[in-house]
């Protein structure tokens, strides 16, 4: 009875007693990001970004060479396979896809990122000018 009176007094005085155990959120940690070996021109590549640690909800984002605007092209797509896995798919690889791709993950406790380089393999052509089409039958170099 005394406990009830004490709780009632605490409530009436504006105090709220909450009995709970606090759990700190674990920040995310990513596996190293890797592309398949020797990706070929005009083929598809899929790379997975896996958070091996971290409490949900996790938010994934992708960048190429430090910018995120590259993914507006229809050949690029990202998807969440689970709360801890995001994939990047690039269709019909071209030389313009070469670069450093970074997967970023964050939650309320922190952030992490992992970067890998993509180097598309294919026939190397020496041209006098840059081809007008993004889909080129070869990886080109400009002849000076």
TrEMBL record:
<dbReference type="InterPro" id="IPR007110">
    <property type="entry name" value="Ig-like_dom"/>
</dbReference>
<dbReference type="InterPro" id="IPR003598">
    <property type="entry name" value="Ig_sub2"/>
</dbReference>
<dbReference type="GO" id="GO:0030424">
    <property type="term" value="C:axon"/>
</dbReference>
<dbReference type="GO" id="GO:0008046">
    <property type="term" value="F:axon guidance receptor activity"/>
</dbReference>
<protein>
    <recommendedName>
        <fullName>Ig-like domain-containing protein</fullName>
    </recommendedName>
</protein>
<dbReference type="Pfam" id="PF13927">
    <property type="entry name" value="Ig_3"/>
</dbReference>
<dbReference type="InterPro" id="IPR036179">
    <property type="entry name" value="Ig-like_dom_sf"/>
</dbReference>
<feature type="signal peptide">
    <location>
        <begin position="1"/>
        <end position="22"/>
    </location>
</feature>
<dbReference type="GO" id="GO:0007156">
    <property type="term" value="P:homophilic cell adhesion via plasma membrane adhesion molecules"/>
</dbReference>
<keyword id="KW-0393">Immunoglobulin domain</keyword>
<dbReference type="InterPro" id="IPR003599">
    <property type="entry name" value="Ig_sub"/>
</dbReference>
<dbReference type="GO" id="GO:0005886">
    <property type="term" value="C:plasma membrane"/>
</dbReference>
<keyword id="KW-0732">Signal</keyword>
<dbReference type="InterPro" id="IPR013783">
    <property type="entry name" value="Ig-like_fold"/>
</dbReference>
<dbReference type="GO" id="GO:0050808">
    <property type="term" value="P:synapse organization"/>
</dbReference>
<dbReference type="GO" id="GO:0043025">
    <property type="term" value="C:neuronal cell body"/>
</dbReference>
<keyword id="KW-1015">Disulfide bond</keyword>
<feature type="domain" description="Ig-like">
    <location>
        <begin position="28"/>
        <end position="119"/>
    </location>
</feature>
<dbReference type="InterPro" id="IPR050958">
    <property type="entry name" value="Cell_Adh-Cytoskel_Orgn"/>
</dbReference>
């Amino acid at each position: 009875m005394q406990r009830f009176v004490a709780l009632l007094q605490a409530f009436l005085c504006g105090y709220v007693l909450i009995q709970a155990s606090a759990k700190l959120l674990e920040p995310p940690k990513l596996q190293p990001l890797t592309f398949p070996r020797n990706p070929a021109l005009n083929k598809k590549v899929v790379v997975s970004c896996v958070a091996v640690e971290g409490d949900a909800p996790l938010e994934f984002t992708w960048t190429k060479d430090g910018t995120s605007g590259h993914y507006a092209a229809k050949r690029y797509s990202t998807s969440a396979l689970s709360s801890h896995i995001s994939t990047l798919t690039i269709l019909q690889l071209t030389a313009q896809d070469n670069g450093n791709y970074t997967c970023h993950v964050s939650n309320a406790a922190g952030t992490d990122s992992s970067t890998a380089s993509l180097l598309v393999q294919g026939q190397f052509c020496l041209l006098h000018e840059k081809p007008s089409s993004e889909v080129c039958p070869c990886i080109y170099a400009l002849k000076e």
